[in-house]
Amino acid sequence: MPHVARTHAVVIGAGMAGLTAAQALSKHFGKVTVIERDVLPAEPAPRSGTPQAQHAHMLLAGGLKALQTLFSGFEYDLAEADAVKIRTGKDIRMERPDSIHSPSVILVSTSSACRAPCSRPLLGGA
Fold first, then answer.
1. Cα–Cα distance between 104 and 7 in angstroms, integer?
2. Over the stretch 8-50, which tens digit does the pLDDT of each residue have?
């Protein structure tokens, strides 16, 4: 008979952290319940509980690998949702002002590892 404390896990929040925690817990608990205050949309869309959802997001190679381990087919799902693979430092650059009068260009990385830029709702829904 399984230990009573290990039969049911409860996760609060259906954001990226909550969903990855729920997936990790599902291998150790018979039942996992995710409690979320927002109604989850059928398609990727911003929610009031994720104010950062309006920002562009990039998934670094390590994060992509970790999510692919937890969610089989995750990278394929991103590609199917039109997330584009890029090489940071080669395909994209970030600019920020050094001061009011002189902007400087900063390469995010010179690595050729792939990343997947996409919206937060797309990332959470993949």
1. 55
2. 999 999 988 999 999 999 999 999 999 999 888 888 778 877 7
0.90 exceeded by the pTM? no
15: CB partners within 8 A, 6+ apart: 49, 50, 124
Q: Report DSSP letters for 19-73, one per residue.
A: HHHHHHHTTT-SEEEEE-SSPPPSS----TT-GGGGSEEEE-HHHHHHHHHHSTT
- The H-or-E segment that residue 125 falls in is helix 120-125
Q: Quick one: tokens of 25?
A: 């817990």
Give the max Cα distance, the chain: 69
User: What are the residue ranges spanned by the domains of the chain?
Assistant: 1-39, 54-126
